[in-house]
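User: Before I run my own analysis I want an independent prediction to cross-check against. Here's the chain; please return only the structure tokens and, at the end, one sentence I can use as a sanity check.
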Amino acid sequence: MVITMKYIVPTILTLFALTIRAQNITVFSDTMHVGINLNKQQPELDTTIYILDDNHYSVPWKIYFDNAKTKLAYESIVKGDTCTEFNYWRSNGKLKRKMKYYILPNEDFYNWVYEENYCENGQLIRKCNPNNPKTEHIINFYCNGKKKSEFTFVGINWEGLFTTWFENGQKESDGYYTKTKKQGEWKYWNENSELVLTEIYKDGELIESKK
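Assistant: Structure tokens:
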């Protein structure tokens, strides 16, 4: 759900009050165009809101949780002619998300090149370069600091070993990918470390399943 509000005078302090999940969230801004986008893609980060602007790629601006402007909710930082950084905070003052974009050579649009995500307790749960054309090893974490998943991207494809864990630290699954297609033996465990399923794949097609 996206809510966009426009005001004629950009220098007037504007108050936005939204009721989200029976909880009132108040956001203060001195910008002209403000949009509020509820985050549903990552439940770990769904304790606050994303705040976007119609022109936030090229104009530095800030949004606050309080009228005194002491608790940042969002900040857009323009670095030179090609790079823009976006930082999102939670109402408890901890960083929620950091993103970086840059303008592609001879293009008029921004390329998303870096992202960090944090839990409400400040734990880093994801760090990646979304559009990295090269090989990138990624580790995701739970809010308690334990590993959630570990895998490798080559361009836009999963390649090699892909492993997931339960929040208690026990292994949940592992197996191999070739160009995002499952290959060979995949194993699955329960939270008591008991093997519950073994599958055999060839080029993404399930060949055999054993419980």
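Sanity check: Residues 132-211 form one domain.
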